[in-house]
Design goal:
Layout: H1 4-8, E1 21-28, H2 32-43, E2 48-51, E3 67-68, H3 76-83, H4 85-108, E4 116-124, H5 127-139, E5 144-148, E6 158-167, H6 170-178, E7 182-184, E8 189-193, E9 196-199, E10 202-211, E11 228-239, E12 247-250, E13 260-264, E14 267-276, H7 284-295, E15 300-312, E16 318-323, E17 326-333, H8 339-354, H9 378-387, H10 398-403, E18 409-414, E19 417-423, E20 429-433, E21 444-446, E22 451-453, E23 460-462, E24 467-469
Parallel strand pairs: 1-2, 1-10, 2-7, 4-12, 10-17
Antiparallel strand pairs: 3-6, 4-6, 5-6, 8-9, 9-10, 11-14, 11-15, 12-13, 13-14, 16-17, 18-19, 19-20, 21-22, 22-23, 23-24
Helix pairs in contact: 2-6, 2-8, 3-4, 4-8
The structure holds FE2/S2 (inorganic) cluster.
The site of FE2/S2 (inorganic) cluster (FES) has 14 residues, from loops.
Length: about 475
């Protein structure tokens, strides 16, 4: 099902790239990050084109809960520990400035996007933990205070309140801001070599390249696949539900539930049930619906959808130069659950970098920083596995197909090979090779969304084997 944003805003279509072009900056991806970066570059007088494989905002931007805030969970005392006070301050200030910058752009351009200033609350079972986090946030210059207790239905000992944060309708905003920009839709970048990009519509020669495509798909250099994983989460839109004022997020883990709440017009958006991509035995929507029944017994579901987020190893996004060996490539990824705010942070930092200036908050986000945790082994193992990937065609024998219940998918053993099989409601069988075309990990069946998901770096494919989201760039082999 589509998000309420998709249902209530259709962005005008754009033509594909008309053939080979040259430009100062080529931006890959027309989500919030790509569009905001192009917008800032245009304001700075720099020519930029945005190349989008599908439609504007067809990726994660349309699946967000659309909160604009520096309130990112129990993060600030951890950032001080990981990076030291100076860099943690950069993180806090960059996000606080992003909230202000959204407000400025919306006011300056009179954009009608249901922008609403409101407070952001982080709720938890432990007042002590909240006090510790609020003290860290205050030390970094944020205005945070602890309130005891929480309004119904939120079960918490208290919350950290940050005032003057915001929420909006992301597609209405994007529609307005993208109008004067050069954007080519249905133009899929297949490879990038130095200043040259190859697309399905022709070649691009660009002085600078920005990867704003959620998960950067060039594996070497950069090794982003080894430095982050992806998580999925789910959202219900409920009417006839009374939620408290403001935007709420739970601390999660040992500090209680991690559900997200915000209002949009007459609706309440309830989000949660996160898990690592590729690790879903099923029942996530049902678990969220159960929570909805407990918290909002009279609520009625009018929409549901899911989102996917990149989670970096040290909990700060990667924004800046892609890799030392490619000085004209830039990247913005690893936004965790804070895509809207981080997109603005990225646009500000990347625009400055492209203009030859060092943004004062850039240091903490620098992609070449040292990661405190060890690099996962998947880099080497995946690189090995990919060598064995070849085009394969599978035919599922009739007796094996009979065993599979209608509407179910799973892995079957076929002549020593593992094959992914799904039987639709009409009994039609779809069989796919479940080795991920990215780096060869085994895909897992996701029964809630009828997709094959990769537990390594989060690529997803529909039951027919068609690519939903990367870093993989190809469909699966299928029968
Ligand atoms: Fe990397 Fe699947 S192996 S996404």
């Amino acid at each position: 099902m589509e998000s309420i944003w998709s249902q209530s805003c259709q962005i005008e279509e754009r033509d594909p790239m008309p053939g080979d072009i040259q430009t100062d900056v080529a931006i890959i991806g027309a989500g919030m990050t790509g569009i905001l970066t192009a917008h800032r570059l245009q304001q700075a007088g720099i020519q930029a084109v945005v190349l989008e494989a599908n439609r504007i905002a067809s990726g994660q931007t349309r699946n967000t809960t659309a909160k604009i805030t520096a309130q990112h969970g129990l993060i600030y005392h951890q950032l001080i520990k990981n990076f030291g006070v100076k860099k943690a301050e950069q993180y806090a200030m960059a996000n606080a400035n992003a909230v202000t910058e959204y407000r400025r752009i919306i006011d300056a351009n009179a954009i009608d996007c249901d922008f609403e200033e409101t407070s952001a609350y982080l709720y938890a079972d432990s007042l002590e933990e909240l006090q510790k986090e609020a003290a860290a946030a205050k030390q970094l210059g944020l205005c945070a205070s602890v309130v005891e207790g929480a309004p119904a239905p939120i079960p918490a000992a208290g919350a950290i309140k940050m005032e003057q944060q915001a929420q909006f309708h992301p597609l209405k905003f994007l529609q307005a801001i993208s109008r004067p920009l050069t954007i080519y839709e249905n133009t899929s970048v297949q490879s990038v070599e130095g200043h040259f990009l190859v697309t399905n519509r022709g070649k691009v020669e660009a002085k600078k390249v920005v990867f704003a495509c959620h998960f950067p798909f060039v594996n070497f250099p950069g090794l982003y696949f080894a430095r982050m994983h992806q998580e999925r989460s789910y959202v219900l839109a409920l009417e006839n539900a009374a939620a408290p004022e403001g935007m709420w997020i739970g601390a999660g883990g040992q500090w209680g539930p991690a559900y997200s709440l915000r209002r949009y017009k007459n609706l309440v958006l309830l989000g949660g049930e996160s898990h690592r991509a590729g690790e879903n035995p099923g029942g996530r929507y049902e678990a969220l619906r159960q929570r909805a029944r407990e918290w909002f017994p009279k609520g009625r579901e009018v929409a549901h959808w899911s989102a996917q987020d990149c989670i970096p190893a040290d909990h700060a996004p990667y924004i800046g130069r892609y890799a030392a060996s490619q000085p004209n490539w830039y990247v913005a990824t690893g936004f965790q659950k804070w895509g809207m705010t981080s997109a603005m942070v990225a646009a500000m930092i990347l625009c400055d970098a492209i203009c030859g200036k060092e943004h004062p908050c850039a240091g903490v986000f620098a992609p070449d920083r040292l990661v405190p945790q060890g690099v996962p082994q998947i880099a080497g193992e995946g690189g090995q596995a990919v060598k064995g990937l070849v085009k394969r065609i599978f035919q599922i024998p009739q007796e094996k197909a009979q065993e599979l219940p209608v509407g179910h998918g799973g892995v079957v053993l076929l002549e020593g090979d593992k094959v992914g099989v799904y039987k639709d409601e009409n009994g039609a069988i779809y069989a796919v090779d479940i080795r991920c075309p990215h780096l060869g990990c085994q895909l897992e069946w996701n029964p809630d969304e009828l997709s094959w998901d990769c537990p390594c770096h989060g690529s997803r494919f529909d039951y027919r084997g068609r690519l939903i989201s990367g870093p993989a760039q190809e469909d699966l082999n299928h029968a």
